[in-house]
Design goal:
- It is built from 6 helices and 11 strands.
- The protein is elongated and about 65 Å long.
- The strands form 2 sheets. It has a 6-stranded mixed sheet.
- By secondary structure, the protein is α/β, with parallel strands linked by helices.
- The chain has helices at 58-66, 117-131, 150-159, 181-190, 226-234, 246-258, and strands at 22-29, 37-44, 54-57, 71-76, 82-90, 96-97, 109-114, 135-138, 168-173, 201-206, 238-241.
Length: 280
């Protein structure tokens, strides 16, 4: 768990006070049912930032609580700052009492973010800020790869390491994403089989600017990139509203990751590659 320490969001003049002796950013569960915490990612509260996370056992945390040490569950906001502290306490039976679940301790999924740079760069940065300690994030900057041919573009994405070991492609869906040729090519590349790996999973996040955002996940296929829509119809792709809930983002990426085994539902060859942008 070697992610860099981030600053903290402390509101108000003179508010530079410790939240607690220790802050906790992730849980590690016993089994898959998430009923008993066994490990926790623990940071020292250094007032202006949190220290590097150290994985501690349930027993260690309980012992520290019994000795009078204080703990706060913390989250990250879209600026990448630790925020929203909430006390972790001992329950009446000597266990751990908490009101919300945190992201899960585990290996960092390798994620490629595809988006329309002109419209949605800010949300791409927000996604990186929210998930820097959860995923290994990659994305292509505007102009990083210049090719007029889809096959050459995809080949460069793989050779330069953008897609070579990507396991989930996260598509940030704004109102104009469906018009962008490079987005279509990036989805196509993620659905190409790579030696030593399987196909990448597909997750679409409807941004607040998208017309279907907040509509109870009733998505209009015509409002989506055609290649993504085809894989959504088959059940290979996953779509949901944009959220700043880190635990929810982790769950959505995991769902897309798990669907990679459904290779019979992949639609790639049947969708023509875009040869030009079709809108603003």
């Amino acid at each position: 768990m070697g992610e860099p320490a981030a600053g903290v969001d402390r509101e108000g003049v003179g508010a530079r006070v410790k939240w607690a002796d220790y802050c906790i950013s992730k849980f590690g569960w016993e089994g898959t049912q998430e009923t008993r915490i066994e490990r926790l990612a623990v940071h020292d509260d250094l007032v202006d930032k949190l220290g590097q996370p150290v994985e501690r056992s349930r027993a260690w945390v309980i012992k520290e609580l019994q000795a009078g040490r204080t703990f706060a569950l913390v989250d990250k906001n879209e600026k990448g700052l630790w925020s929203n502290p909430e006390a972790l306490r001992l329950s009446d039976d000597g266990g751990l009492h908490y009101a919300r679940k945190l992201p899960v301790i585990g290996p960092a999924t390798k994620v490629f973010t595809s988006f329309y740079h002109k419209d949605d760069e800010a949300k791409r940065q927000s996604f990186d800020h929210l998930t820097a300690d959860l995923f290994t994030n990659k994305s292509v900057g505007d102009g990083d790869i210049d090719s007029g041919l889809s096959d050459d573009y995809i080949k460069q994405l793989i050779q330069r390491g953008y897609l070579h070991d990507t396991t989930v492609l996260v598509l940030l869906l704004g109102p104009n994403t469906r018009h962008r040729m490079h987005v279509d090519w990036e989805i196509a590349g993620a659905l190409e089989y790579r030696v030593g790996d399987r196909y990448a999973g597909l997750l679409g996040l409807l941004l607040p600017t998208h017309p279907d955002f907040g509509e109870g996940r009733k998505v209009t296929y015509a409002s989506l990139p055609a290649r993504f829509a085809a894989n959504l119809r088959t059940g290979y792709a996953v779509v949901d509203d944009w959220t700043s809930d880190r635990r929810r983002l982790q769950q959505l990426v995991q769902t897309a990751f798990d669907r990679r085994s459904n290779t019979d539902k992949i639609e790639n060859r049947s969708v023509p590659r875009m040869v030009r942008d079709t809108g603003p």
